[in-house]
Amino acid sequence: MPPTQSSASGLPLRDQPATEPASTPHRDRRPPPASTLILGLETSCDETAAAVVEGGRRLRSNIVASQFHLHAPYGGVVPEVAARHHLEVILQVIDTALAEAGVGWRQLDAVAVTAGPGLAGALLVGVNTAKALAYAHDLPLLGVNHLEAHLYANWIEVAAREYRVPELPALGLIVSGGHTDLVLMRDHGVYERLGRTRDDAAGEAFDKVGRLLGLGFPGGPAVERAARGQGRGGLRFPRAWLRGSDDFSFSGLKTAVLQSVRDDAGAPPVPAVAAAFQASVVDVLSKKAADAARREGVRSLLLSGGVAANGPLREALAARSPVPLFAPPPLLCTDNGAMIAACACYRFDDLRAGWDLDPQPGMKMT
Ligand code: ADP
Ligand code: MG
């Protein structure tokens, strides 16, 4: 589009390429210049997050304002409440991220934002804020796929942790509140989805079981805490192996948990139910991911998404994986802006967006 044309919003459009699908493969990519400074914004669900990452790896700041206390009374995320709260805090979160990084607008090289998937109203706040700020400060705008970004949390260097760059091809296990995907990452931007959940996502199952057991929201950390150090008291819940497929299913497990706690004759104690439920999820996720890694001959296994914070899952995968396991520190497992900035740095040219960038609630990775 010529630089002088106007967009529907009346803003003049600059000379930027139109938005491309996030998964456009480019094989002749350059390594990220070590000094590229990107501000990453994330508002796809119930975290308002901003971070500054240098060279796709060095974490200069990482601010996450979680809204979980606002949604806890409802036992799940209320989309309208999420969008309103993003709007209230996003500028403050960005200011804090820049101040903590000691970076001014003039030093930044780009603004990157989650374009999807996620809640439409919530995404809209991040995308419109990123557009306005990038436009005002004359910076490139990059639209990032949230799921792809979860994988890039494994590229971020964290103080006091030994740093290794994941070798490709890699197998990604993305386990979050909304997704459970097994993805083959052949190269940066080149993905093949091998499997997905056929019903509930792993995090969703943790959240539902947490609610069922009266442990509060979000259920993942609460179930892990309740199960810690507990035996299963002889309880064993089913595992949906779906043999011959890389897909997952957790709804049968959820029903089995429900039936066990409804057993008036002798409902088992909550810690034992939590431990047995967690053992079932961990067993299926770790075995299927390890098997797929072996079969596909990958060089790394990348765990990511909120459920990747789960200690027993990390231990089981580390024990079963035939290749080095990468798992981000817990704060980079759940939604954050750093993973958005890191992904944008590695995929800078592919993810350049125009001022007509729109949120894509159903955005796919492959
Ligand atoms: P989204 O789906 O919005 O991208 P996140 O990637 O932030 O969400 O992941 C949130 C999910 O992760 C929630 O379902 C939460 O219960 C789950 N989760 C967070 N910590 C843990 C944990 N320690 N164990 C299991 N699940 C967890
Ligand atoms: Mg997420």
Q: Structural class of the secondary elements?
A: alpha/beta
- Rg computed from alpha carbons, rounded to a whole number of angstroms: 21 Å
| Unique bound compounds | adenosine-5'-diphosphate, magnesium ion
- What is the β-strand count? 11
Could you give me the name of the CATH homologous superfamily of the largest domain? ATPase, nucleotide binding domain
Summarize this, please?
This protein is an alpha/beta fold and 366 residues long. It has helices spanning 68-71, 79-101, 120-136, 146-152, 202-212, 219-227, 251-261, 270-296, 311-320, 330-333, 337-346, 348-351; strands at 37-42, 47-54, 58-66, 110-116, 141-145, 170-175, 180-187, 190-196, 300-304, 325-326, 352-353. The strands form two sheets. The protein has a six-stranded mixed β-sheet with strand order 3-2-1-4-5-11, with helices on both faces.
Structural description of this entry:
The protein has 366 residues and is of the alpha/beta class. It has two domains: 37-161 and 334-353, ATPase, nucleotide binding domain (Nucleotidyltransferase, domain 5, 2-Layer Sandwich), CATH 3.30.420.40; 170-326, 2-Layer Sandwich (Nucleotidyltransferase, domain 5), CATH 3.30.420. It is built from twelve helices and eleven strands. A six-stranded mixed beta sheet has the order 3-2-1-4-5-11, with helices on both faces. Strand 1 and strand 2 (47-54) form a beta hairpin. Helix 5 (202-212) runs parallel beside helix 7 (251-261). The longest helix has 27 residues, at 270-296. The protein starts with 36 loop residues before the first strand and ends in a 13-residue tail after the last strand.
